Structure formats: structure tokens, C-alpha cells
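Inverse folding, one chain.
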């Protein structure tokens, strides 16, 4: 495995400018489709966070890695000192969303996905880098802050009740969706009309933010009557449209819906009925091609019974049904018709990388190729993400194997599809998640993907990897003790090569520090880094907002 020889450069104190800890004054943001509810109240002036955030102890008695430690304060902004050179063409803001606060008072959350959303920005302009973070002011976060206790159901957490009647009332609210969280801690995306929205698995957890100040502007209200409580946390978003899946838990299946840029109204393209199991499979994400939408039916299925439990099971809100089998459905974008539905080997994935159409010499589509970060049909990955597991790494190699899983879905009426590794998994350390591609290749035949891989032994993906799907090779970036977040590719304006651009990541270091990292998209060599003045928790998914 090709690993870089970069080493951590130590300095007595990180270099940064705090701008007195204040955000720049922004004009109010208005939009006709924005429901301004639960908007953040004006914040008092803030001081920069401590250079060394307070260390908490895990069950082993040692300090937490900053990746799994709550952010030291609600908000901060300042200019970072850059080592290396930021390309002058890189003008815009990288936004990253993810859980960043895992405790309320003395109560500590259990799972990585429970944490309250922390937005981080990296603004690039004229070779300079302005960074900042801010807590998303969801209703769930504001209620917990006010009451100093959990008030909504998170991924693994359930509010504690004073008496049985309160518990019964909370269950009633669960069926209406009122007690489900709106903690939008999973992703952030720029819509075609310029609005920037934070998302999670619950539909109510959709919030519009200001990409400059990171201020929470209000809840994104869907202007239709489709209803439902959940949706895919990863819609497909382009300048023209927003595509997502709405799982139907009553009559197991999925609605495939589309929302035009500038609108809040989702319109149904079509419906897919599940072919197996008591409930639809979890659809955290899904892929598309130029003419088709691929709807996966994974045997890791939603489970209403687990949703009602006061204590989590190892699979949380889901249940593994291998007997129900696994399927891939292909829907025509224009007609909504199902043009292929095949059984595939059992699989477990959170994230699809991309998909494209394979054609014969006459231009007829013969198959759909869909790639994902596949966890070898091993559901234990969910429980490995308990904070106690992440915080208590003892040198044992406990990260479950993962690969670039490549589905081949025939379009000739065949009953079966193929799932195999797109390249030898040892090329990327048998770790594979948190992926991105050149967005100009969405739904098209592509060559490169960027993701988090593994340098073993480890308990979590700890490398950045560039996968070459033609040569079936990978280039890997690694620093001992570091936990990098999703590598996000930004194409150079006017580029003609697929990998001509930069890869942005944020890295939490084992020494309690953190830095922003830029890699060359082609060579995968480091071109710049900039230290934060505090440890940065791990984050999930991001987006790019170009400066025009």
C-alpha cells in the first residue's frame, strides 16, 4: 500500500488570528420558501476557545481523542495560518456537518450519531483561509440546552421520563413524529437556488443555514402533502433538481420524489414496492445515472419495534433480515416505470459512490453499474460506532472489513445481479467509507473516487484514499494517530481531467489538535495545511459553495 511520508510538524502554539472572536456582520437572509421557526437568538460576543480543550476521561481512564470529544464552545471564527500554498483558483467555502456535542450537562451520549450538529466552514480566497464553527440551532438542541436534559429521541438515545404517564405520552408523540429529533447532524447541501440546507434521516430535521455566518435561519418546510417521517439522508442534488427516497413503513416500499430548484414541493416520480421483509431496507443514500434512479433494498431493514424500545439494540432502529434477501430496483427518471428489479448478494452500505449506464455498440443500455462503500454484509459496523468503542482503542484491529462494492444490474430481464469488489480491498487497507467524486461525473462513467480507508490495526477509518477504478489501485494518505474526515473533491474551474482539482479534509490529531488539509487531486500529495486553535471533533459530510 502506498503511504505518504508526511509527518506532524509540532509548534509551541498554533498560529491563528481570532478577529476578536466575532463573526462579520451579515445582512438578514430572506427567502419566500423559508419557514423561519426556531431561529437562533443573537449571540453575545465570543472569545476564542482554549488552546487545549478540557480533556474528559473514558472508561479506560485515558483522555479522549479529539475526534470523539465535544467541541469546546458553541461558535468561533478566525483566520488560520497556512503551511504550504492554497491554489489561487480555490475561491469559496467548504461546509462540513456532523455531530460535535455528545453530552448534556453530566449526561454523555452513547453513539457517534447521537451528537448535536456542529457546522464547520473553511473559506478560501486569495490564498487565505478563514475557518469557523457553530452549533446548529435545531429544536432538539435548543430544548436540551434550556432544560439540561435530552428532550427528543436521537439515534440511540431516548428521553428519560419522570413517570409512566409521561412515557405513554412520549410514545404517542413518537407515532406522530413529534418526539423524533430534528437534529440535522448528517449532511449539508447547496440547492440549485443557492439555499444551503442541513439534513438528517428525519424529514423535520431539515434546516436552512447562512453559509457565511453558519447561522441557523429556520426549518426547511416541504410544501407538499406527501407526509412521512423519514427520508434518505443523502438526496441527489444538482443545480436543477433534488431527488430523494421516502420509505413507506406501512406498505413496505419507497416513493421516489423530485423537487425542482427554487421550489419546496416534492413531486412523485414513481413507487417501488419491496420484494422482501417486513419493512423497507434502510436507504441512507442511493445512486442515480443519467436516465435512471437506482433504489436499493438492503436486508438491514427499518424496525418499528426497535424504535419503541427504551434501550437500544445492537442494530438500533434497524433489524437484519438475511432471509428476506437483497434487491436492486431501477426506475426510469422520465416515466417512473421500474425497468429492472434483480436479486443481489446480501450487502450492508451507508454510502453509494456513483452509478452509470453500460452500453453496447448500438448505444443500448445493457447494465447499470452502481458502486458503494460495502461493509461485507457485516452489520456490526453500527455498534462499532458507539462512543465507548471509539474512545477505548487499545491497539487491536477491530474495524470490520469494507470494500468498493460494485453492483452490476443487467437490463435484459435477468433475475439476478452481481456484487463484487471493484478493486482488491487491501489496496485501501480493507477500510472504505465517506466517499466523494468529481461532481461533474455524477451518474456518468468515472474513474476516480476519494474516501476514507484504513491503516491497520485500527478501530475506525484513519486514512484518506484515492481509488483508481481503471487501474484498480489506490493512493493513500496517513499520519499516525490522526482521524481524517470525508475527503471532498473540488474541481479546478476549466479542468478537462477528472482528477484536476483539490481534496479537502479536516483532520483530528491524537495530540489533541486538529488541522485543515488540502491534497492535490491528481498526485494526492499534500499542498497545504492549517492548524485550528483547538481540537476538532470528527464530522460527517460536506458541500462546496463557490464564490461568484
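Residues assigned per position:
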Amino acid at each position: 500500500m502506498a503511504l505518504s511520508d508526511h509527518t506532524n510538524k509540532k509548534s509551541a502554539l498554533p498560529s491563528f488570528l481570532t478577529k476578536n472572536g466575532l463573526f462579520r456582520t451579515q445582512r438578514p437572509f430572506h427567502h419566500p420558501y423559508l419557514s423561519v421557526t426556531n431561529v437562533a437568538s443573537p449571540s453575545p460576543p465570543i472569545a476564542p476557545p482554549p488552546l487545549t480543550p478540557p480533556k474528559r476521561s473514558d472508561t479506560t481512564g485515558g483522555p479522549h481523542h479529539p475526534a470523539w470529544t465535544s467541541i469546546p464552545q458553541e461558535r468561533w471564527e478566525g483566520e488560520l495560518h497556512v503551511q504550504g500554498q492554497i491554489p489561487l483558483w480555490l475561491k469559496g467555502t467548504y461546509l462540513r456537518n456532523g455531530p460535535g456535542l455528545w453530552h448534556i450537562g453530566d449526561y454523555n451520549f452513547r453513539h457517534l450519531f447521537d451528537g448535536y450538529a456542529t457546522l464547520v466552514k473553511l473559506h478560501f480566497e486569495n490564498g487565505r483561509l478563514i475557518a469557523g464553527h457553530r452549533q446548529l440551532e435545531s429544536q432538539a438542541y435548543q430544548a436540551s440546552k434550556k432544560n439540561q436534559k435530552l428532550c427528543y429521541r436521537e439515534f440511540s438515545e431516548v428521553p428519560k421520563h419522570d413517570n409512566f404517564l409521561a412515557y405513554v405520552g412520549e410514545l404517542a408523540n413518537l407515532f406522530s413524529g413529534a418526539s423524533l429529533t430534528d437534529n440535522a447532524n448528517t449532511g449539508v447541501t447547496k440547492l440549485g437556488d443557492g439555499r444551503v440546507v442541513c439534513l438528517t434521516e428525519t424529514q423535520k430535521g431539515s434546516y436552512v443555514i447562512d453559509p457565511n455566518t453558519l447561522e441557523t435561519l429556520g426549518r426547511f418546510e416541504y410544501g407538499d402533502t406527501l407526509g412521512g417521517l423519514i427520508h434518505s439522508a443523502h438526496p441527489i442534488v444538482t443545480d436543477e433538481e433534488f431527488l430523494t427516497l421516502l420509505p413507506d413503513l406501512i406498505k413496505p416500499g419507497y416513493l421516489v420524489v423530485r423537487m425542482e430548484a427554487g421550489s419546496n414541493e416534492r413531486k412523485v416520480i414513481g413507487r417501488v414496492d419491496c420484494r422482501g421483509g417486513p419493512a423497507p431496507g434502510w436507504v441512507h443514500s442511493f445512486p442515480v445515472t443519467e436516465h435512471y434512479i437506482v433504489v436499493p433494498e438492503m436486508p438491514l431493514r427499518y424496525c418499528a419495534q426497535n424504535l419503541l424500545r427504551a434501550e437500544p439494540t445492537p442494530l438500533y432502529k434497524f433489524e437484519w433480515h438475511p432471509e428476506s434477501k437483497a434487491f436492486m430496483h431501477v426506475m426510469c427518471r422520465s416515466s417512473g416505470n421500474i425497468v429492472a428489479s434483480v436479486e443481489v448478494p446480501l450487502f450492508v452500505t451507508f454510502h453509494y459512490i456513483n452509478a452509470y449506464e453500460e452500453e453496447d455498440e448500438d448505444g443500448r443500455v445493457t447494465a447499470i453499474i452502481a458502486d458503494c462503500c460495502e461493509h461485507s454484509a457485516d452489520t456490526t459496523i453500527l455498534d462499532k460506532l458507539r462512543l465507548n468503542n471509539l474512545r477505548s482503542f487499545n491497539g487491536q484491529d477491530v474495524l470490520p472489513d469494507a470494500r468498493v462494492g460494485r453492483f452490476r444490474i443487467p437490463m435484459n430481464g435477468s433475475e439476478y445481479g452481481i456484487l463484487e469488489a471493484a478493486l482488491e480491498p487491501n489496496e485501501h487497507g480493507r477500510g472504505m467509507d465517506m466517499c466523494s467524486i468529481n461532481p461533474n461525473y455524477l451518474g456518468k462513467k468515472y474513474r476516480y473516487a476519494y474516501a476514507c480507508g484504513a491503516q491497520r490495526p485500527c478501530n475506525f477509518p484513519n486514512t484518506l484514499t484515492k481509488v483508481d477504478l481503471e487501474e484498480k489501485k489506490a493512493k493513500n494518505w496517513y499520519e499516525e494517530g490522526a482521524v481524517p474526515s470525508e475527503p471532498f473533491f473540488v474541481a479546478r474551474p476549466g479542468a478537462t481531467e477528472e482528477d484536476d482539482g483539490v481534496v479537502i479534509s479536516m483532520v483530528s490529531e491524537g495530540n489533541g489538535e486538529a488541522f485543515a488539509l488540502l491534497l492535490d487531486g491528481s498526485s494526492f500529495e499534500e499542498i497545504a495545511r492549517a492548524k485550528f486553535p483547538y481540537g476538532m471533533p470528527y464530522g460527517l459530510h460536506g458541500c462546496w459553495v463557490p464564490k461568484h
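The first helix runs from residue 139 to 147. Confidence is low (pLDDT under 50) at residues 1-62.
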